[in-house]
Amino acid sequence: MSFGQNTIGDNSNVTVASTELVATASYGTRLLANTALGLNFKFIYSNLLSGVSGQQDATTASYAVDIGLIQRDVLIHGLNLATVIQNMGPNVFYLDKSQNDPIPL
User: Fold this and answer.
1) DSSP letter (8 states) at residue 21
2) Which of 9, 44, 74, 97 is deepest in the core (most CB within 10 A)?
3) What is the chain's alpha carbon radius of gyration, rounded to the nearest angstrom?
């Protein structure tokens, strides 16, 4: 995904192209006749700023796991209920490890 061109600072003519890349591997299986489980493993690479003279590179890499469960035909035929938790993984940081942030769930 490209975030387009971003300008550095208020009075600067320096622009950078910020990007993110996510590679995934997924697996799903039926647990019971009407119940299924899905897992998604992903590698995340984020490049907010790199290759600009006088600026420290702001890139990060991490991983995350998603899990989902679906129950089909709950109470009546055609009523499906699902729950999903996404982006369970370690915190990420760009420039300063003490200023890390969790991956949004």
Assistant:
1) E
2) 44
3) 20
